[in-house]
């Protein structure tokens, strides 16, 4: 089964488009939820959709830990240079490893 990814608001639409072009099943959170959605709402949506959240926000891991839910998984990006081309290259390297890890 191919993983679904949801990019948080801080991930550029350019990055999402590039990853789609590489064959990833990815949307931006604003494709399905209002831009004003809380992190809790995003977690609930990702859980329901069985999707991995890609974010630069550290709050998601804490929300999931406190909720007692067994997901969703979160990819937390901590980068000095968050330009879309750099983030796209980084994710293109990391996502195949995430897919392998979560398939096990």
Overall description:
With 104 residues, this protein is α/β, with parallel strands linked by helices. It is 47% helix and 15% strand. It contains four helices and four strands. It has helices at 13-21, 39-49, 59-67, 84-103; strands at 4-7, 25-28, 51-55, 74-76. A four-stranded parallel beta sheet has the order 2-1-3-4, sandwiched between helices. Helix 1 (13-21) links the parallel strand 1 and strand 2 (25-28). It is globular, with a radius of gyration of 13 Å. The N and C termini lie close together (12 Å).
Question: Which characteristics define this entry?
Answer:
single chain; 104 residues; alpha/beta; 4-stranded parallel β-sheet; 4 strands; 47% helix; globular
What is the strand arrangement across the widest sheet?
2-1-3-4
N→C terminal distance: 12 Å
> Globular, elongated, flat, extended or rod-shaped: what is the shape?
globular
List unreliable stretches of 5+ residues: none
In total, how many beta strands?
A: 4
Instruction: Outline the biggest β-sheet.
Output: 4 strands, parallel
**Order of SSEs:** EHEHEHEH
Gyration radius, rounded: 13 Å
What helical percentage do the residues reach? 40-55%
Number of helices: 4
> Domains counted in the coordinates: how many?
1
Average per-residue pLDDT, rounded, comes to: 92
Query: What percent of residues are in strands?
Result: 15-25%
């Amino acid at each position: 089964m191919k993983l679904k990814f949801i990019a948080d608001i801080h991930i550029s639409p350019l990055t999402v488009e590039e990853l789609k072009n590489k064959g990833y099943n990815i949307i931006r959170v604003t494709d399905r939820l209002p831009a004003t959605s809380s992190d809790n709402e995003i977690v609930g949506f990702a859980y329901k959709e069985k999707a991995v959240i890609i974010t630069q926000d550290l709050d998601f891991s804490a929300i999931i830990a406190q909720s007692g839910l067994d997901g969703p998984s979160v990819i937390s990006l901590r980068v000095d240079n968050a330009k879309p081309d750099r983030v796209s290259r980084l994710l293109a390297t990391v996502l195949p490893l995430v897919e392998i890890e979560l398939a096990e």
